[in-house]
Amino acid sequence: MKRKSTWIWTVAAALLAAGLVVNVSTAAKKDKQGPKKAAVERTRKTVRMLDDIYKTAVVLITTHYVEGKDSLPAGTAAIALFDAVEKKGWHKATLLDVSGEPYDYKNVADDDFEKAAVKKFKAGEAYYDEIVTKDGKHYLRAATPIPVVMKKCITCHENYGKAKKGEVVGAISYELPIE
Prior knowledge:
179 residues
């Protein structure tokens, strides 16, 4: 009877181990596959929505509140908004210079993704993104160009004085979790 009991425990342990190996293997495969396509598309849609909201806010602030050099620049307001949103844990957004003459050197692209985005926008691309994994979690890094949309922009950005309407002078870089 003792042999039969030992054999049953051995088989049970082997099956359990095999089950764990299958589960670990399945989990590894799933991670290598990356996030689900539908989740990535939902996150891209969220980026488009945020981009529209943020850029609309900057235009509205510039239109209605920027009156001279002493006015709060809309870009400064946007950066404060980005910081508040990130502190609350929603997502990360960063204002980037594309012109080569940054208003503030904090806005210069500082990682490979942002540098690639700036190159793409200088070449005429309208959107750039990639999926990254940090600490086992998937994120969408996305960037969108910011063109000059009105002459009033030069009130705060004299360096854009020679820029033509529609010329890309900046970008917003986003990092959102893919859920």
